[in-house]
Amino acid sequence: METSKQGLVVSAHSADFVWRAGGAIALYAKRGWTMTVVCLSFGERGESAKLWKQPGMTMARVKEDRRREAERAAEILGANIRFMDLGDYPLRVSDEALFQLADIYRELRPEFVLTHSQRDPYNFDHPLATHVAQEARVIAQAHGHEPDTPVLGAPPVFLFEPHQPEQCEWKPQVLLDISEVWEKKRQAFELMAAQEHLWEYYTRVALQRGAQASRNSDRKIRYAEAYQRVFPQVTEELA
């Protein structure tokens, strides 16, 4: 039986993947791919202000609420989801957790990886997440790591759009048409009740990237997501 192709998303917090890569996830899931999201943390401290304003709130309740939101969002988008619970503000990643992520790479053998920008002066968890995602990728390629299991190839890494790209030294190099799955993405991020203030912001981002995608193609594109490549594209054709 032929297995489906795999895509991997490494998300610092439990909602990041929805805002920034929900369209790509839903699009590839619709095409029959197995999409897996790994959340390094629940975003329990820095991205859950609305929950903390509720009387009697506890850390355990915040984590459970954020887990439940992310699980429901992943289900709508068509993705599998895993949580590593490595802390939030600050996120801290041990060697054990790094090896665990490297083992996920070897288990899934993804065709591509989506993760955060390499810089973000507003959120130090985000660049740490992309560093960890890429370091785990390198470890999974090393013959000396778990030598009884096959090494990973070289899946391309795409950095999804940060909240303030100009401040993060991030440039949109790939524009992905997500128009056909936009309603799924919108439905998924409307589950993120702790961050309701971002719903309209990311709708405007998708419309703006859609307009840019139309200008850079001969197609009419309503909604798009933007990505920056880490590695050169290897291809036999330029068009």
What report would you give on this structure?
The chain has 239 residues and is of the alpha/beta class. The chain has one domain: Rossmann fold (3-Layer(aba) Sandwich), CATH 3.40.50.10320. Helices cover 39% and strands 15% of the residues. The chain has helices spanning 16-30, 49-52, 59-77, 95-108, 125-141, 182-189, 199-215, and strands spanning 6-11, 34-39, 79-83, 112-115, 157-160, 174-177, 224-229. The chain has a 7-stranded mixed beta sheet with strand order 3-2-1-4-5-7-6, sandwiched between helices. β4 (112-115), α5 and β5 form a beta-alpha-beta unit. α1 packs antiparallel against α6 (182-189) and α4 (95-108) crosses α5 (125-141). It is globular, with a radius of gyration of 17 Å. 45% of the residues are buried. The mean pLDDT is 95.
List keywords for this structure.
239 residues; Rossmann fold
Précis, in short:
This protein is of the alpha/beta class and 239 residues long. The protein is built from seven helices and seven strands. The chain has a single domain (6-229), classed as LmbE-like (Rossmann fold, 3-Layer(aba) Sandwich), CATH 3.40.50.10320.
Percentage of residues in strands: 5-15%
How far do the termini sit from each other? 33 Å
What's the CATH class label?
Answer: Alpha Beta
Q: Main β-sheet: number of strands, strand sense, barrel status?
A: 7 strands, mixed
* Secondary structure tally: strands: 7
GO molecular function: hydrolase activity, acting on carbon-nitrogen (but not peptide) bonds, in linear amides
InterPro entries: GlcNAc_PI_deacetylase-related, LmbE-like_dom_sf
Pfam families: PIG-L (PF02585)
Protein name: PIG-L domain-containing protein
